[in-house]
Each structure stands twice: as C-alpha cells, then as structure tokens.
Amino acid sequence: MNEEIGKRLRAAAEAHQPDHDRMLARVHRGMAATPVRRRPGIARSWPKVVLAGSAAAGILAVAGFAVAGSVPAPPAATTLTVPTTSEAPSSTRSPDSPVPPPATGRPAPATTGRPASSTPPATPAGNRVADGPLSAQGTVDPHSTVYWAQSTLDLDTARPLTALVVEVRITQTGGVQRTGQWQTGPADDFAVTTQDSGDAVVYRWELKPGRTLPAAAQVFAVQYNHAAGTRHADLDSYRVQATTTDGSHTLRGGFTTP
Hints:
Blueprint: H1 2-15, H2 20-32, H3 46-70, E1 129-131, E2 134-140, E3 148-157, E4 163-171, E5 177-183, E6 190-197, E7 200-207, E8 217-225, E9 237-244, E10 247-256
Parallel strand pairs: 2-10
Antiparallel strand pairs: 1-2, 2-3, 3-8, 4-7, 4-9, 5-8, 6-7, 9-10
C-alpha cells in the first residue's frame, strides 16, 4: 500500500506544473486560517498515521519542486581581469625569507718574501741620496702589517762594483725580531750576516772577493716582526760602501713610509 502511494505521489510530482500565483494564494490562506487544536491521546490508528505521513511527504516534495522552479538561477560567476604591465613590481622580502648576509672582504695577506713585481715601489721625492755613479733610497714596503714589516733599499750604480758592503739597521722599537732578508744579486756572490746589536737588528751583505756586480739596479730587503701597532721607521738607517773603477763611494740614508 505504501509503495502504491509513493508511486502516485512521484507521478503527481513529475506531472505537476507549478503555479506561482496559486501557491502564494494558498500559503496566504493557510496563514490566515485558525490553527486546529490537537485532541489529547492517540486518536489515529497506525495505518492512518502512516498514510498521513506519506501524504505529508508527497506535499513537501511537490512544494519543493515548486519552490525550486520558482527560484531564479544564480548569476554566472564574474571574472575580474587585472591589467598587466611590463613594469616589474618592486622587490619585497618575506619576513620568513633569509636575510642575505652582508658582503665582507678580507685584506690581502702580507708578503713575506720577494715581491712579485721587480719594479720597486714609488718613494717620496728627496729620499734618494747619491755619490758619484751610485744612488740609493730606502722605503718601508707598502704590504707591511701591524705585526710584520719589510724595509727595502734600492741601489743604482752606473758603473760595475768590485767591492760592496751594505748594512741595514732596524732600531729596536719593541718586539723587533728578524725573519729574513733577500737581494736581487746572486746569493753566491755575497756573505750575509744578521745579528742583534744592542738597540738594533743589523743586516749585512758583503760582496765576496773576486766578484763583480754589473752596472744595474740592485735591491736589498730586510724582514722583521715587531710589536702590534703602527711602527715608525724614523730611526732605521742604511750605509753603503762601494768601490768602482773611479774610486770609493759612501751612501747613508733612512727609510720612509710611502
């Protein structure tokens, strides 16, 4: 019986053509009618309750179809088009993105041996001294650091040297310790000594007997550690004694910082 009622209700729902005005009038009449009080107790038998429930379900189904047919379809979704330009947006950084570390530089390590370039560094005017065919100038190497330094003596001779003694004195200004020396002439041509002499470290080159230095530019360099900080070379000095075909010559001078 229930299945038969359900079939009839579905058939009626499919064949129903909703009438909007008529439905509104029916709703208005229902709202205006006086509600009927329900009698206490069970007044209906079980089959009647089932029938009434099925009928109510059918009415709700029909009403649902009617309402669905009367409600207008929602408007189509509107797509917002944002114009694009060729200009790139300003760069921004997310709070969670890592901050690139700042660029840092490391100073070039100090040279502890012969400079790569054979050209001596420029020196202030007035530092060069001369005697006959010889001239010389002393400078502190620009690659020196707050712990280490190199003092360089540039010796030029316009004539061959048959005898030569070069002596460099580095004043003990605190923590001065010899670390080495070098020269441009052949090492076998010189007797080289280094010693601590009271208030200075003394470096000495002596041309061996029977050897001759050609007329050319010669370089003699001394290297040493010193107390941390800027070291002044005002008290450092050099002495050159040389013999050429025209006689003996002597040069004396100091070292300046370029």
